[in-house]
Amino acid sequence: MNLWLVFLTGLTTGGFTCLALQGGLLATAIAAQKSDTARGWKWTLLPTFIFLLAKVAAYTLIGFLLGLFGSVFQLSITAQMLMQFLVGIFMVATALRMLDVHPVFRRFVLTPPKAVFKFMRNNARSGSYFSPLILGLATVFLPCGTTQAMEIQAIGTANPFWGAATMLAFTLGTTPLFFVLGSLATKFSQTFAQYVYPVAATLVLILGIAALDNGLTLAGSPFTLKDFWVTATGAEANSVLGTATGNNEQQSATITVFATGYEPNRLQIKSGIPVSLNLVTKNTQGCTRAIVFPTLGIQKVLPETGATQVNLPALAMGKVPFSCSMGMFTGTIEVI
Question: Can you give the pLDDT at residue 178?
Answer without folding.
Answer: 75
